[in-house]
Amino acid sequence: MKITGIRFGMLRVPLKTPFKTALRTVEQVEDIVVMVHTDSGQVGYGEAPATAVITGDTHGSIVEAIRRYIAPRLIGMDIADLNRITGLIQGAMEKNSSAKAAVEIAIYDLWGQLYGAPLYQLLGGGDPVITTDITISVDYIDKMVADSIAAVERGFESLKIKVGKDIGVDIERVKAIYAAVEGRALLRLDANQGWTAKQAVYALQTLEEAGVKLELVEQPVKAHDMEGMRYVTERVHTPIMADESVFGPMEVIELIRMRAADIINIKLMKTGGISNAVKIADIAGMHGIDCMIGCMLETSISVAAAVHLAVAKAGVITKVDLDGPSLCATNPVDGGVIFNESEISVTDAPGLGIREIRGLELLAEPKAA
Ligand code: MG
């Protein structure tokens, strides 16, 4: 099965409610879909969102990186040479992690199709059912409490609460939500870099003294402030998780060496795809550090790949934050991963099992010079 070409599409899906964090507000998912074609007629699918404030990737940069730097290295490559292909993708250029991820996801999809097995089985197997949390966007306290209660009633047992706007209001937000759902759902806070290290320690110690038990707090300080992350981790009982601070395996090694956080959030759009995500899970596992698997605002193409990885690495990836598909108003994809609110299950379809993508707008190929 040899690669013959790569094509692109744009997939737009409205969100049920606007997604609001300390960094941004988003109304709809708008992702680049990558289709890797082969001489056998089989097509592999990948996907990447523009997340300029986190990874630096934009729609234009994703397409340009793949078209000019990654695709030319892959044409004619045999899908069976998986490790060589992922090496070519990762070495094609610096950064551009989302572009690399989209292509890797499509390649792994084809790798599964080549051997007629669902991806998680080729990655080591596992129990093909996992449970995700759901994001509660940062908003007025009453709205966040109402959204949290509604999520619990939809069956979610873990809520990821977005904070990081105003430290005083953040503390009140969390206390109010905790009181409303106590005993029915675990709370994960995501500050999205919105606090200083001292503010984070103050907020978490205040919450701890008030009896609020949090499962974890994600990325309290700025992405580059690894010292600040360690400062917080050393001073609170609540487990601290690194998200924007760690992209690839090298940063994970540095974080572990510094003991800067207790948990690592793996996202394919940060790692540059599945090959590095596997490395991170293995490094973390060796050091007894748990991982979460997360996603950006993605649909069930790229999130499906994250699900397969999470199933295969469930011994290390103990927390799942793959709520992209359940935040979407509709599911545009018929595929091998079934998203049913908090429960995500995987069928035995080969690769990612994607049969149809509804509403995909194909992007025109540039005219030959
Ligand atoms: Mg996060």
Automatic annotation (TrEMBL):
Active-site feature positions: 162, 267
Species: Cognatiluteimonas weifangensis
Domain of life: Bacteria
Binding site for substrate: 24, 135, 160, 295, 297, 321, 323
EC number in record: 5.1.1.-
BP GO terms, sorted: peptide metabolic process
Coiled-coil region(s): none
UniProt-listed SMART domains: MR_MLE
GO molecular function: metal ion binding; racemase and epimerase activity, acting on amino acids and derivatives
Name by which UniProt lists this protein: Dipeptide epimerase
Sorted UniProt keywords: Isomerase, Magnesium, Metal-binding
First-tier enzyme category under EC: isomerase
Signal peptide: none
UniProt keyword Hydrolase, yes or no: no
Free-text comment on the cofactor: Binds 1 Mg(2+) ion per subunit.
Keyword Translocase: no
Pfam families: MR_MLE_C, MR_MLE_N
Essential cofactor(s): Mg(2+)
Domain (Mandelate racemase/muconate lactonizing enzyme C-terminal) ranges: 141-239
Similarity comment: Belongs to the mandelate racemase/muconate lactonizing enzyme family.
Binding positions (Mg(2+)): 190, 218, 243
Entry-linked InterPro entries: Dipeptide_epimerase, Enolase-like_C_sf, Enolase-like_N, Enolase_C-like, Mandelate_racemase_C, Mandelate_racemase_N_dom
